[in-house]
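seq:
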Amino acid sequence: MGKVNTVLGPIATEDLGITAMHEHIGFGLPGCDLDTQWWKKPEEAFDVTIQKLRRFREHGGKTFVDCTGIGNGRDVEYFQVLSRRTGVNIVAVTGFVAGDSALPYFRNQSVEYLTDLFIHEIMVGIDGTGAKAGAIKVGVSRGGKLSELDKRIYRAAARAALKTGAPIITHLCVDAETAIAIFDEEGLPLDRVLMGHADDGGYLDEERDNLIANLGGWVGFDTIGYDSEMEGAPYWSRPRQDRVEHFLRFLAKGYVDRALISADANCCALGWPGLKGHSVNYLFEEFLPDLRKAGVGEEVFEQLLVHNPAKILTMQEPRSFESFEKTEALLKRN
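struct:
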């Protein structure tokens, strides 16, 4: 029997149920709490968030992984209140969305310091709350290549994952070969890593996705709902049907056991307007119906929303993993 850390304490893996793997209660860049243009009264933000989480629960959703990193609006005490009020399990993360969104305090810290920070938040707790992180967030800074700071964060995340058994969730699959090399050097197999936002309209690369899946990694189609047809759609959006067809091609290659889906939506955006009408519930109300029309069966949805999340979120026994044997050969081939 495995376990997963939530903000209200560890739960058994079988209690995860339908899981949204990459979401946000509220995400913003450092300083967003001082914003005046998009700031919402706490009562308003609470009401909106409660409504979306309860709707998620009505759709059968049971676990919500909040991928908001340190300094980007993560508020574990708030998450605890929301979880108690809605009955939704909320998994919080340690780590950073990307090096360029990390608070200045962390930017010159060593790999050893960052490793200890991540381990503390997973094993001891976050901000003195006693709530433990259930995953480690890392990401690629603007520009499309891992920065020197990004590489330190990735290396620290790999070491913390090995020592705690927690998984890693990335923001973007960009510069995947560099990331894979770092994980391999640290002895972390890719089955402990979700490489996120493969469906991001600005960074599409199906050969990269094949590489990740062939190495045993998880490929996240987790910006679902950022459709270019929607008013105010951000630059990473893409046509709705284009995303559906992309995902169907991935499934057709036999990678259903390597795929994870989510919306990367904000219950209530911080310091930016968000995308009106977009929430975690887009998965159930729009994306799954699109897949049904294409002939995808219910057993696939159970794999994507129940079994695959359970596999990656379950805490592993801390140990020194051996290098992933296929990595070098597959990197050379690609």
